[in-house]
Amino acid sequence: MQGLNGWQRIYIVIVVSWLSYLAYIAYSQFTVAESRIAELQAAVERYQNHQEDTTVLANGSVIRHHLSGPSPEQWLANYQAQLTQVTEAKRQNLISILVLATLPPLLIYLILSWIVAGFRQHKPRAS
Predict the structure, then answer these.
(1) Fewer CB within a 10 Å sphere, N or C end of the chain?
(2) How far is CA 32 from the centre of its chain?
(3) End-to-end Cα spacing for the chain
(4) How far apart are alpha carbons 10 and 75 in whole angstroms?
(5) What average pLDDT is seen over the chain?
(6) Which helix (H) or strand (E) holds 54?
(7) Is 40 exposed, middle or buried (CB count within 10 Å of its CB: 0-12, 13-18, 19+)?
(8) Cα dihedral angle (92, 26, 96, 86), rounded to 10 degrees?
């Protein structure tokens, strides 16, 4: 870091700390989102493959088990809706992380530049 003044060093430390914090938050949120998406996709596939449970008896007759409650189509629609919501939330998190990774460092740089410019204007001059 030779050639950097004190303000530039402070700026670099603040920005690196902020970006590290954002990277940690993004990683934890995306890990949770990916596991939830995998669970929902598995549930959707399970309902698509086994819409009705059937049992084949030894004499060749088939018994179909119907569960009480919502129909398999309703369960499937519910899981599809949840999957869409989680995917959309993941996309929104990515956008917000990118905005938070860009705007605060830029604002901090502008504020520090303004402070440094103020100190340079009021610097006592040697006569």
Answers:
(1) C
(2) 8
(3) 33
(4) 54
(5) 78
(6) strand 53-56
(7) buried
(8) 10
Neighbours of 111 (CB within 10 A): 11
Domain that residue 15 falls in = 6-58+73-120
- Asked, for residue 127, whether it belongs to a domain, the answer is no
Angle 50-51-55 from CA coordinates, rounded to 5°? 65
pLDDT in tens, 13-56: 988 998 899 889 888 888 888 888 888 788 777 776 765 555 55
Count the domains in the chain: 1
pLDDT, tens digit (0-9, with 9 covering 90-100), for 32-42: 888 888 887 88
